[in-house]
Amino acid sequence: MNTENFAKWLRLQGYKVIRTTSSYWYEIKPRIFQAFPYHWLITPTSQELSDFVMRNKVLGARFSTPINESVGCISYHAVLEETDYGPEHLGKWARKNVRRGLNRCTVEPISLNRLADEGWALQLDTLTRQGRDVVMTPATWRKCCLSAASIEGFTAWGALIGNKLAASVITYQMNDWAYMLYQQCDRKYLEDHVNNALAFTVTSHLLQQPGIKSILYGLHSLDAPPSVDEFKFRMGYTAKPVRQRVIFNPFIAPLVQPVSHSLLKISRKVFPTNSFLAKTEGMVRFYLQGKQNIYEQEWPDVVQEQIRDNVIRSG
Fold it and tell me: How far apart are CA 165 and CA 112, in angstroms?
């Protein structure tokens, strides 16, 4: 249940994985890399980044770095770093929704083989409901699930209404951290609050496991709608302030300017579900914001006050 197992899972899915001095990286798109483990806050040297980019012909890469670094977009990780967790840690409406959800569904571990068979419909429904382009296929979804089935540390959970899989999530334990990965839900069951029941039950279970001290529910996304993170915060998770740093190949970096960003934003409005445009616009936005003063950046309304207070407390 370590970083190498997570790297193995990515490789089994066909991703290229590279190790550098400070981190691991995987190729999420051709020549575009994301650092992992996701909760690591790294400070690679300029030489390390230059070697990584030039040796691997990297076009762009993204990683999280400490909040007190001078470069990088002020951002957050959705985390729970308190081992004490229960209904009393949720707001009034979240408690009510958890109670309703648990009255209408059963939350339990399911096999990753079952998730491979039944989870694709939920994943597809979730992406389309969020207005995101569907770049995954049934085959890549099966590979994602079945690759995890062969590696220690991965578990699938399902919210079941009768014998129908209404919502699901994959978890992974990495040393003293747990990750919530690929949560999805059939929109027919949203009013049954199965997502609330699922998140609450899985979070409670994970924090009871020996050695787990923290849970990562995801990074501040390049393109996900704000509602995705609003749900996590209502379920008791907090926005841990970090900087997300985006780097570009030195041959591309001079072209990354406010004008090119404006063109990308216009293109996104014309093609709102295009995943490539959404991710590219997000990386350019994070890159440009990374050069701004901490208080010049815009935040989703739901986290604005929390982030500002956390940043001030962090010094």
Answer: 13
| CA–CA distance, 208 with 24 (Å, rounded to integer) | 29
Three-point CA angle 170, 173, 177, nearest 5°:
115
- Kind plus residue range of the DSSP H or E element containing 143: helix 138-149
Q: Rounded to a whole number, what is the distance in angstroms from the first to the last CA of the chain? A: 34
Dihedral sign, CA of 129, 135, 141, 144? negative
With a pLDDT cut of 90, the percent of the chain lying above it is: 65
Query: How many whole angstroms from its chain centre is CA 164?
Result: 26
- 249 phi and psi, to 5 degrees? -55, 140
Confidence of residue 314 (pLDDT cuts 50, 70, 90): very low
Secondary structure (3-state) at 208: coil
245/234 Cα distance (integer angstroms): 27
Beta strands in the chain (DSSP E): 17-19, 24-29, 32-36, 60-65, 73-80, 106-110, 154-161, 164-174, 177-185, 214-219, 238-248
CA distances from 58 to 31, 44, 55, 248 (A): 5, 16, 8, 8
Q: Please give the C-alpha separations between residue 296 and each of 97, 277, 299, in angstroms, as whole numbers.
A: 36, 24, 10
Residues in the chain: 315
**pLDDT for residue 313 is more than 70:** no
Residue whose token pair is 């985390």: 79
Kindly list the distances between the CA atom of residue 282 and the CA atoms of 39, 60, 144, 225, 264, in Å, as whole numbers in the listed order: 20, 12, 24, 12, 9
Residue 254: strand, helix, or coil:
helix
- Tell me the pTM: 0.89
Q: Alpha-carbon distance 157 to 112, whole Å?
A: 9
CA atoms of 183 and 180, how far apart (whole Å) = 7
Which residues have CB under 8 Å from 253's CB, separation 6+?
none
The backbone torsions φ and ψ at residue 62, rounded to the nearest 5 degrees and listed phi first, read -135, 140
